[in-house]
Design brief:
This protein has 182 residues and is of the alpha/beta class. The chain has six helices and seven strands; from the N terminus they run βαββααβαββαβα. Bound molecules: flavin mononucleotide. Flavin mononucleotide (FMN) binds at residues 9-14, 57-61, 88-91, 126-128, 137, 141.
Length: 182
């Protein structure tokens, strides 16, 4: 089985998530390829893969434009095969119904814009990388995190991803239960 993961990222966390999941797939002798959505929306060609995951993170309510463009370009091929979307966000770290409603709206806009209907969607909590933000972004993120119940200090970074839930989703979607030994 050939598996493709295409991601968009701004600060690198979605890349790390995809590489982590791909390593788990490879540990089960599955062929997993990870690629960033780049300037050429034609690449990589999803049609030669059995299962495709697209992953992107939310920044001010939007996913990375290159990943959106990739999904739009390949929506017909993606709709014909087993394909899933991994949405990475800070909102997914909490239980606030308003945040979750917002996440559903972001995914709905994404599927509307791209014409791609993923068979499944996983919401992964992302990271807070104060070390990569400028002064204003740091202030804004500290405030946003506090609003979501995460009381943070700007002298360190935070990884809020539940990697077990992520791998359960990815392995379950390709049909390899996470509980099965590697
Ligand atoms: C400037 C900025 C804007 C963000 N906007 C949102 C947002 O609208 N909703 C949300 O849930 N998370 C938001 N986040 C959190 C990111 O989705 C989270 O940090 C994620 O891990 C980023 O992934 P990346 O490193 O792959 O870009 C934002 C983060 C930053 C730095």
């Amino acid at each position: 089985m050939r598996i493709l993961m295409v991601y968009g990222t701004t600060e690198g966390h979605t890349r790390e998530i995809c590489n982590f999941a791909a390593a788990r797939l490879r540990a089960r002798d599955l062929r997993a390829t990870v690629e960033e959505a780049g300037n050429d929306p034609g690449h990589p060609d999803p049609s030669v893969y059995d299962v495709v995951f697209l992953a992107a993170s939310l920044h001010v309510g939007r996913y990375q434009p290159k990943l959106v463009e990739y999904a739009r370009t390949h929506h017909a091929a993606l709709n014909e095969k087993r394909s899933a979307f991994i949405s990475v966000s800070l909102s997914a770290a909490g239980q606030n119904p308003h945040d979750w409603e917002g996440l559903e709206q972001c995914v709905a806009r994404f599927t509307h814009e791209t014409l791609w209907t993923p068979s499944a969607v996983h919401h992964a909590a992302g990271a807070i990388r104060y070390s990569q933000y400028d002064f204003f972004k740091r202030l804004a993120m500290k405030h946003i995190a506090a609003q979501r119940g995460e009381h943070t200090v700007t002298s360190r970074d935070y990884d809020l991803t539940d990697y077990n839930a992520l791998c359960d989703f990815v392995l379950g979607f390709v049909g390899t239960p996470a509980a099965q030994p590697a």
